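Next comes a concrete protein, fold included:
___
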Amino acid sequence: MKIIDKTPLQDQKGEISFSARIQGTLKYGLSWFSDLEAQKSVIALLNRTLEKGYVLIRNFTLPGSDIVIPIILIGSFGMQVILITKVKGLFEAKGDQWNTKDSHGRSQPAGINLIGRVSQYARVLQKYLQFQKIEYPGQIESVLIAADPGAHIDSMRPAARVVQSDAIKQFAASLSQARPVLRPEQVYEIAERIVNPHPPKSPEMEAEAALQKPAALPPPVSRSQAIFNSEQTPFDPKDLGFAFEDDGQSASQLHESSPAQRLPSQSAKSRKIMGMTTAQIILLVVMLIVECCVVIGFAVIYSMNQ
């Protein structure tokens, strides 16, 4: 399986330094780094089963936006958007709802709707393909994978496919046995077009290309169809209508495994210091204090052993 890793803030070796970890925590949230570790474990399992003819794009940021698609998996079976979660406990996936359950079986809506979240990921990627004029037959499937064995999920016709930790290998095997809808060359072409989108052509470039082609009599088309064919609309993330209603995080505080939310208002931006909110600055100070305490502790232990 070919893996295209677009994870932000990591170096060329795929590692994240301490300073980058602080930066990522401030930008994406407290669980950002642990979410990345959960992704690694699941990707390793998929890679053992899915060999040639599959492409996995990890943590791809849509151009011109803060929207990070966690996992895009493309193969002969088609295309999936995968959200990997490390939650523990009892849960219920019912339709487009994601609920928590207590020991008595009572359920209530979870703070973050993971089913709705991964479904939105699939929709926004579908729109991105349309903007980039990338041909893909059918709809993109959304998949939620629980990486922790401590997560137990009751599924009742969920809007997204739900895979628990003990079924990841079977999930990968089912993909390799699925009815093929894409040829190998299509798989790699779609992946390349997603990661390296073609810039929209200007009217001048289209006119020049038309002059270079041999003349041919086109079939008659309506005026409205001719106008539509002459337009090249660039990708604009604002046109996606992609926002969250189930929590109050801003786009800058979004977890990597979470789609973008409403951008903060102008008043919220004015309260930022050096591009960071008060909460982010406090978090940074706390992490620096903890790190200093760890260094001092090691120094004291070393001096006592001398």
Summary: Strands lie at 2-5, 55-61, 68-75, 78-85, 89-94, 97-101, 107-109, 141-146, 151-156, 161-163. The longest strand covers residues 68-75. Residues 2-203+241-263 form one domain.
